[in-house]
Design goal:
The chain has 420 residues and is α/β, with parallel strands linked by helices. The protein is built from 18 helices and 15 strands. Strand 14 and strand 15 form a beta hairpin. Helix 1 crosses helix 4 and helix 11 packs across helix 15.
Length: 420
């Protein structure tokens, strides 16, 4: 590629070099304060996450806290070479005397970690990088051991979504603050449904045209990842199969799965499906949850659960209109929103949706909670000798004690507002 074109890109990405000011949103993601803690440290900072969640904006906001920072993106295919990376870094250091370099979507460049390692060890340069592919950055941590710290930028949480919509929320005491918010209950319920539909991505939270919302998510996020990003890094012989697998996951989010069954359903071999699942997970499109058990062997042997990263992605891929988001459909996607690394299921098929730091959390997104709905939670508490549990509901807020065990029932919208 011509050096003149790269120089032109450098100046386009850095309008401050010609005295221009970049307009940035005042709102900052909740990850921002954690990043600020590391901004003066020598370690390379790596920000990972799904496409369109705001990594680039976050990096540009960080530039305001740095001395003479410069930025370059490798999102264009023409720039994704080691030669371009070397030229850009050399230009920043020698021509612009920069000590802080921000490199966006660096995972596409071959041997980028070797290049950064060499500069890290020999020159006093602060690197902040981003990537939409966690496996590549995880590999980099091995070669950059002790030199890199990673941060995950998730889709907007419900509190961030409301802040962007102009609604500041502060919760100090769960019971007292819930009582204060009851007068706006309908508002929060409405916004929570809207958040599930489109609220994970900053650019479209105020979009009202459902066709635009679905097309934005499906075309600019899902298909770009499946048909471009993943194949650029991994060998994907059948992009149509990769998309079919992802669509299947969208439809079956929050369900147990077996790879053998997926092979049968999709008419593909075991190795291919296993690899494709890994690619989707590493590209932040899906989450996989393992059984909560005392031994590693038990966790590995048992079936796992699979979740879509954010409900809005499934709704876009499945072409759901907002009017279709009734209670029956929403249940599995509310669970998907809150799904964590582990769930619990015993040999009698008693199941708890989420285990978070040893606490059982069950999602029952319905108006009617019965004693049958608490059976599995109580079984978990008896098995693991825990005293407290949470049941996420549609609109019930209460606390009750059963068999000397305390269960908190909390509406999904209010649970989503709790600090992480």
């Amino acid at each position: 590629m011509e050096k003149e074109y790269i120089e032109r890109l450098i100046h386009e990405y850095n309008p401050q070099l010609t005295g221009k000011k970049t307009e940035l949103p005042a709102f900052k993601r909740h990850l921002y304060p954690e990043l600020i803690k590391w901004i003066k440290k020598k370690q390379i900072m790596a920000i990972t996450g799904l496409r369109r969640v705001g990594k680039t904006t976050l990096m540009k906001q960080l530039m305001e806290e740095l001395d003479n920072p410069v930025f370059f993106s490798f999102d264009e295919e023409e720039t994704q070479t080691k030669e371009v990376l070397l030229f850009v870094i050399d230009y920043f250091i020698n021509n612009l005397k920069s000590k802080c370099i921000l490199l966006d979507e660096i995972q596409y460049v071959r041997d980028w970690q070797g290049v950064l390692k060499r500069h890290y060890d020999t020159k006093n340069i602060k690197f902040i990088i981003s990537g939409s592919e966690s496996l590549e950055l995880r590999k980099a941590k091995e070669s950059l051991a002790g030199r890199i710290i990673t941060f995950r930028l998730e889709p907007l949480n419900f509190r961030e979504y409301l802040e962007l919509r102009g609604k500041e929320i502060e919760i100090k005491h769960m019971k007292e603050d819930y009582a204060k918010m009851l007068t706006e209950k309908e508002f929060f319920e409405f916004e929570f449904t809207n958040y599930l539909y489109c609220g994970g991505f900053p650019e479209i939270i105020n979009e009202t045209d459902e066709d635009i919302i679905r097309k934005y998510i499906n075309e600019l996020i899902v298909k770009k990842i499946i048909y471009r990003d993943i194949p650029q890094i991994f060998e994907v012989k059948r992009k149509d199969l990769l998309y079919a697998l992802f669509r299947y996951i969208c439809n079956n989010s929050a369900n147990l799965f077996e790879i053998k069954n997926l092979c049968t359903t999709l008419k593909a071999d075991y190795e291919t499906i296993t690899n494709y699942l890994l690619y989707l997970q590493e590209a932040f499109l899906v989450k996989i949850s393992e059984v909560h058990a005392k031994g590693v062997a038990k966790r590995l042997r048992r079936n796992k659960k699979i979740y879509i990263t954010h409900p809005s992605i499934a709704f876009a891929v499945l072409n759901y209109k907002k009017e279709m988001l009734m209670e029956k459909i929403l249940g599995q996607y509310v669970e998907s929103l809150f799904g964590k690394d582990s769930f619990w299921r015993d040999k009698h098929k008693n199941e708890v949706d989420i285990v978070l730091q040893g606490r059982p959390i069950e999602v029952k997104y319905t108006n009617n909670i019965t004693k049958e709905d608490t059976k599995s939670v109580l079984r978990f508490m008896n098995t693991f000798k825990t005293k407290e549990a949470t049941i996420i509901t549609k609109n019930t807020f209460k606390e009750e004690t059963t068999e000397d065990k305390k269960i908190l029932y909390i509406p999904a919208w209010y649970y989503a507002l709790q600090p992480n």
